[in-house]
Amino acid sequence: MRIQNNIAALNSHRQLGANNTAVGKNLEKLSSGFRINRAGDDAAGLAISEKMRAQIKGLETASKNANDGISLVQTAEGALTEVHSMLNRMSELATQSANGTYDNDTDRANLQKEVSSLTSEIDRISEGTNFNGINLLDGSLNNGSTVSLNFGATAIEASAGKDFAGTVQIAAAAANAEGITVAIADDGSTLAISLGAQTAASYSASQINQAVKDAVATKLAGGTVADADKAKVSALSSFEASFTGSLSIEATSTLDTTAKAVTPDPTKAGLTLQIGDTADNFNQLTVKVGAMDSNSLGIGAVDISNQTGAQDAVAKIKAAINQVSSTRGDLGAAQNRLEHTINNLGVTAENMTAAESRIRDVDMAKEMMNFTKNNILTQASQAMLAQANQLPQGVLQLLQ
């Protein structure tokens, strides 16, 4: 018998330490509810579950974004509901004024007062409708904004000139940042003058944003109609530049137009909603709403104070109703899409959470079984350590 080293006691002590450690881990898992509390518990499982957690958080936030988008769309659509109601009333008034039984100018003047009041309210709704500080119906959620360009010009007039009014569009394709199209309307006809290499009248906002550079130089080949070599456009986002005025030209005349420097404020090509857990384009929804003021709807100058104007107003108001209906249809489609998006995000988040739970969460019943086993082993180890410590005392009997 040896007394310097009690091997049985050492073994019991080692087992007791291991059992105590196991019981400590069991208690940690039972108290936290997680199978993995630190990387040492399951390094690979921790990495996978953290990645899943990030995706779940992204899905939950995307669902909140989609709900916010629905609220925004409903705000805009609710305002347009009132615009629709006012347009229907204006149509009723215009139709009433167009009737030949109203020969009294006072009667039609009274009808016009209500039309003017409704027009003002439509303008107020267009300017004042907003969601979280974002204007919804003033055109800022459309493809672009309108800025004014001032042109200094000289003309050679060989015959009596005519008045023209039109628009100037600066457009670009991805391959070439040149191109201005001038559309001049005269007595109902349209004369299109293309300057620069491009002849397209318009491009998408994304193409313009990618292609247009700091300087735009345009010049028509052949007879010089415009010289805009000094034209300078910086910080350009999709926009339409327009001018009105009186131009006196003929086929053989030369008109030099120098464009002044313009620095428009960049505008958003619609409002982009993040409805997914990644930044991919398919996880983004762009909501676009055009300007809904009376001028944009084409009813800003309607006058039903006379029968002819009332008859003309009927067609204009109906066209405005169709325009508002189209916009409301787009908003309704966006709302329906967002509702389906929310449902899909919920299902995806639920399944992802279930998968993450299987990796990260503890099985309470199984862990309680392990705790009971390890607790019994700990108590047994303590008892056996006490017994092992008694073994060397047998040597004393040999010395008697």
Structure description:
The chain has 400 residues and is of the alpha+beta class. The protein has a domain at 143-269. It has helices at residues 7-32, 43-98, 105-128, 205-211, 307-360, 364-390, 395-398; strands at residues 130-131, 134-135, 145-148, 151-154, 164-170, 180-186, 189-195, 239-245, 256-259, 271-274, 284-287. Helix 2 packs antiparallel against helix 5 (307-360). The longest helix has 56 residues, at 43-98. The chain is rod-shaped and about 145 Å long. The model is unreliable at 144-268 (pLDDT under 50).
| Class computed from helices, strands and strand pairing | alpha+beta
Provide the succession of SSEs.
HHHEEEEEEEHEEEEHHH
* Spatial strand sequence of the major β-sheet: 3-8-5-6-7
DSSP helix fraction: 40-55%
Q: Compute the number of strand runs.
A: 11
Calculate the terminal CA-CA distance, rounded to whole Å: 16 Å
List the uncertain runs. 144-268
Instruction: Give a quick account of the main beta sheet: strands, pairing sense, barrel closure.
Output: 5 strands, mixed
Silhouette: rod-shaped
What's the rounded overall pLDDT mean? 75
Total helical segments = 7
Instruction: Round the Cα radius of gyration to an integer and report it.
Output: 39 Å
- Determine the strand fraction and express it as a percent band: 5-15%
Subunit organisation of the chains? single chain
